[in-house]
Amino acid sequence: MTAERRLTSEELVRELRTALDADTGWLPALCAPNGPAGLPADAGLEAVVERLLAFTSAPEVPAALTPVLQRAADAADMALVTEGAAHYHHLGTAYAYLTQAQGLIGRDG
After folding, report:
1. What is the pLDDT of residues 34-84, one digit of tens each?
2. Which of 33, 76, 101, 105 could form a disulfide with 68 if both were Cys (CB 3.0 to 4.6 A apart)?
């Protein structure tokens, strides 16, 4: 039996960055070619927050995704100013919202 392992804070940031990756990220691909650009692989959390906010106002983003992306950006922004368990919680919340947004692609609503 294998025990489940939680993602670390660093892994959560990497997952957020992966969704926004300039070459392979699902969010830049959704908005291509006219939407906001993706991020480089070494972008920091502050850049992730800024880019998430850019995607929330991009006309290419379906309306159903906008509030979910805004919540992801808000949670990631809170992670910038917190430490310890609160920092981890906000990163996890941002990741959950970004995962939810990806699941909404192609759905009506």
Report:
1. 999 999 999 999 999 999 999 999 999 999 999 999 999 999 999 999 999
2. 101
Please say if the pLDDT value at position 29 is more than 90: yes
Number of structural domains found in the chain: 1
Is 4 part of any domain?
A: no
Q: Which amino acid is at 52?
A: L
pLDDT band at 4 (very low <50, low <70, confident <90, very high): confident
Looking at the chain, how many residues does it have?
A: 109
H-run or E-run covering 101: helix 84-104
Distance of CA 16 to the CA centre of its chain: 4
| Chain Cα centroid distance, residue 34 | 19
Q: Which domain holds residue 84?
A: 9-104
